[in-house]
From TrEMBL:
Species: Veillonella magna
Similarity annotation: Belongs to the peptidase S26 family.
Enzyme class: hydrolase
A GO molecular function held by the record: signal peptidase activity
Chemical reaction(s) catalysed: Cleavage of hydrophobic, N-terminal signal or leader sequences from secreted and periplasmic proteins
Domain of life: Bacteria
Presence of the UniProt keyword Transmembrane in the record: yes
Name this protein carries in UniProt: Signal peptidase I
Upper lineage: Bacteria, Bacillati, Bacillota, Negativicutes, Veillonellales
Tagged with keyword Ribosomal protein: no
Keywords in alphabetical order: Hydrolase, Membrane, Protease, Transmembrane, Transmembrane helix
InterPro entries, per database record: LexA/Signal_pep-like_sf, Pept_S26A_signal_pept_1, Pept_S26A_signal_pept_1_CS, Pept_S26A_signal_pept_1_Lys-AS, Peptidase_S26
Amino acid sequence: MEKDKSVGSQILHEIWEWVYAIVIALAVAMVVHIFVGQITRVSGESMENTLHNGDFLVVSKWSHLQNKVPDYGQIVIIDSRVNRPRTWKDDVTDVAGNYVAIFSSKAEQHNAWVKRVIGHPGDVLEFKNGHVWRNGEELEEPYTKDVTMDFSRATPIKVPDNCVFVMGDNRNHSSDSRFIGPVPIDHVLGNVVYDFNLFR
């Protein structure tokens, strides 16, 4: 009888050690994903031909932590819910939601978008003849897929303080600042430092 108890307690002890190790590993992974960087995946065609559906992106969170204005032309991940304030709790729930989405596609979030930074605070943007003009100068944008047909916003637009203006490279098939408006800096979740596709 005592031998059975000893075996039972050994099994419980081993299970507890596994659970403890898994919890610690998840906690460390969450800290890394919130404060350092993460890998995410492109869903959709809004950044073609630069990025493609299914591409994997390595995203640095350093600029998000510093609340830093990303460079012109930088590819970033944004929280598209621009009309609500964002707090540190969102960083935690976003990462937790990504983990849950691994096991259930219903938990997948669709508010994180990948876009390119076109305008900084104070910039005046105009859309003329299928091209973007910033502060009176036409932008050279070799990364765009087509001449832009639809801008869906009256111009000129002055980018407000503490905001950036973002657009997808596939201008005719992208939801971006033309539709949701300028993006607050704290809604820029990180910048893309590397992209790859395992299946191409």
